[in-house]
Amino acid sequence: MLRDQGKDAYKAGALSEAAKAFEEARAQFFAQGDVANAASVANDLGVVYYAAGRRDEARQVLQDALATFEKLGNVAGQAKAVGNLAHVMNRVGDKDNAEKYYQRAAELFHQVGDRGLEYNTYRVLSQMQLQRGRWLEAIAAFDRALAAKGGWGALRWLLQIPLRLLGG
Fold first, then answer.
1. 3-state secondary structure of 33
2. Enclosing H/E stretch for 112
C-alpha cells in the first residue's frame, strides 16, 4: 500500500511524499525480512532521490539495491538498478562509469529478454559515445540497439560496414 502511495506521489510530482512513502515501505519490508521487496522499493526510492536532486543518496540506495539483487540472483532487478545507476552517473558527469553501467544494464536486459529496455539502454549508450567522439563504439552500440528491436534491415546493414572493415 505504501509503495503504491509512493508511485502515485511520484507521478504527481510530489517527490518528498514519494520519498517518505518509499522509505516507510522499504523499512516495513526489511522488518518483515522481505529483502527482495525492500530492494525493489529501494530501486524506486533511488529514482525519487535522483529526481529530487539528492544524487549521493540516490547512488547509495541504488548500490544497496543492486547488491541485494546480486545476492538474490535477481537479474531483472540488477538490470533496473544498474540502468538507474548509469543514469545517475551520467547526470553527475561520471561518464566513464556511466558507460560501463549502461553496457552492463543492456546486457542484463538482454539476458532477461526485455528487448525494449535493452534497445533504450543501447540507444542512450550510443548517444553518449557519439557525444564523446567515439564514433565506432557509438555505431556498434546503435547496431546492438537495432538488433534488440529486430533489426532495421538496410540501416543495420549500412551501420555494420565500418565494423566489418575493421574486422569487428
1. coil
2. helix 95-112
**144 CB burial (10 A radius; 0-12, 13-18, 19+):** buried
Q: Yes or no: say if 78 and 69 are a contact pair by the CB < 8 Å rule.
A: yes
Quote the CA–CA distance of 54 and 47 in Å, as a whole number: 10
Q: What does the DSSP 8-state code read for residue 54?
A: -
Please tell me the distance from the alpha carbon of residue 49 to that of residue 90, in angstroms, as a whole number: 15
Per-residue pLDDT of the chain (168 residues; tens, 9 = 90+): 889 999 999 999 999 999 999 999 999 999 999 999 999 999 999 999 999 999 999 999 999 999 999 999 999 999 999 999 999 999 989 999 999 999 999 999 999 999 999 999 999 999 999 999 988 788 888 878 888 887 655 454 555 555 555 555
Cell numbers placing 21: 512513502
φ and ψ of 3, to 5 deg? -65, -45
Q: End-to-end alpha-carbon separation of the chain, Å?
A: 50
Q: Residue 71 is placed in which grid cell? A: 545476492
d(CA 98, CA 148): 20
